[in-house]
Amino acid sequence: MRARYDGLAEWYDERFVDGSEPHQPGLLELLGRGSGPCLDLGCGTGRNFETIRASGRTVVGLDFSIDQLGRARARTDGPLIHGDAARLPFADASFGTVVTLWTSTDVDDFGAVLLEAARVLRPGGLLVAYGVHPCFNGPHVVYHEDGRRIVHPTYRQSGWHTDLPWWAEDGIRRRIGMNHLPLADYLNAILSSGLTVERFEEPAGHAIPHAFAFRAHRPS
């Protein structure tokens, strides 16, 4: 099966060269200090590797796009694995830390991804998830240059969206599409994973939150 980002990895990496920078301090704070291997689940082109290493951990990257992994290789000498986030090729309790960033909108079943993340975490292990805000960032939202956002009644239409009139012609969503989870579905996916949530965050940077993050542990 062809990954959605295959054929677009170079364009994506160059187009969004600075896009991940504002989120790195928040990611580092959620991670805290640690050690040992950290699975970057849906690592893409490896934009978060430096922050993971800054936390004291080593990086193991996994992505479904071979093209994305090719770009990620320039950012790490560590293991990079081609695999499905919903069917991880790791034994139970393989990692002390798992991070998954900006994946909820790019996978078919975010709940399945969280279940797999919980499975490969060791008891007491840490999961950090950071991504699109279900309420204020999605296929139902129109952005305006003055910072206003219009939320359409399509908010409750979960699932894949591939073509909306307010999406930029040359933007990532016109090329990839976007999976939308309303807030209740997103939170219920977390609860169903069996993870214990420590806290939720709406990271700063936008007057109306653009991102939504949480930190959780696998029960000991």
From TrEMBL:
<feature type="domain" description="Methyltransferase type 11">
    <location>
        <begin position="39"/>
        <end position="128"/>
    </location>
</feature>
<keyword id="KW-0489">Methyltransferase</keyword>
<dbReference type="GO" id="GO:0032259">
    <property type="term" value="P:methylation"/>
</dbReference>
<protein>
    <submittedName>
        <fullName>Class I SAM-dependent methyltransferase</fullName>
    </submittedName>
</protein>
<dbReference type="GO" id="GO:0008757">
    <property type="term" value="F:S-adenosylmethionine-dependent methyltransferase activity"/>
</dbReference>
<dbReference type="InterPro" id="IPR050508">
    <property type="entry name" value="Methyltransf_Superfamily"/>
</dbReference>
<dbReference type="InterPro" id="IPR013216">
    <property type="entry name" value="Methyltransf_11"/>
</dbReference>
<dbReference type="InterPro" id="IPR029063">
    <property type="entry name" value="SAM-dependent_MTases_sf"/>
</dbReference>
<dbReference type="Pfam" id="PF08241">
    <property type="entry name" value="Methyltransf_11"/>
</dbReference>
<keyword id="KW-0808">Transferase</keyword>
